[in-house]
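INTERNAL AUDIT FORM
Audit reference: QA-55
Scope: verify that the stored structure record matches its stored sequence.
Auditor: D.O.
Record contents follow.
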Amino acid sequence: MTPIEAPLPVPPAVEEVKYEKRPATAVRPAVYYPESDGEPMAETDVHRKQMVYLIEALTDYFRDDPQVYVAGNLLLYYAEGDPEQSVAPDVFVVFGVPGGNRRVYKLWEEGKGPDVVFELTSRATMWKDLGPKKGTYEMLGVREYFLFDPLKEYLKPPLQGYRLEEGIYRWVEGEQLSSQVLGLELRVEGEFLRLYDPKTGEKLLTPLEAQAARREAEALAKQEAKARREAEAELERLRAELARLRGE
């Protein structure tokens, strides 16, 4: 007899694997951009006062131009999706973007980076200011970069500047510098860096300084007016006395 071949076993039915259909354009997860880098605002009171002066004086100077933004100690993010790519200039000015308040500055949303940056150098920041930060500002196309050492301990000379030429920073010579972008002169006065308007020769003041200067000027004018009245009264008295002595 021919042996009967056993039928081959039927393989079990394979269950169809179903994949969840994803939308054609998946929504990116939200990226958190911190508003603080954990660093102190300034190393010393001198640095803090200098920072406040520059921010407030420049803000007041450009107050009539709605397309100028002045800020300081604010995180600037320059790579969308990567919060690690950031820098926090002590003071910076941007032309061509609306003024107003911001929590952070996102380069891809604003459309352009700073035009001028000031860094107030200290022992803790000097090498960053001259190294990584300088390279970052050069990469971002910051047209002018100024460093100032209020305590005159780390930079020689204490005020130094760089100007962007063909994408590369060139050192600006001189102890008293000027900003071509801002149209202002930079003068070191003791431990302070002051800004001057070359058109008028006047020093830029913060609103608080301007108010104090007005009060001082008004007080001086009152003193001069009082002294003038007293001098005129004394002159009249002397004339009257002279007339009496002459028997007039």
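Auditor finding: record pair retrieved intact. The chain has five helices and 13 strands.
Action required: none
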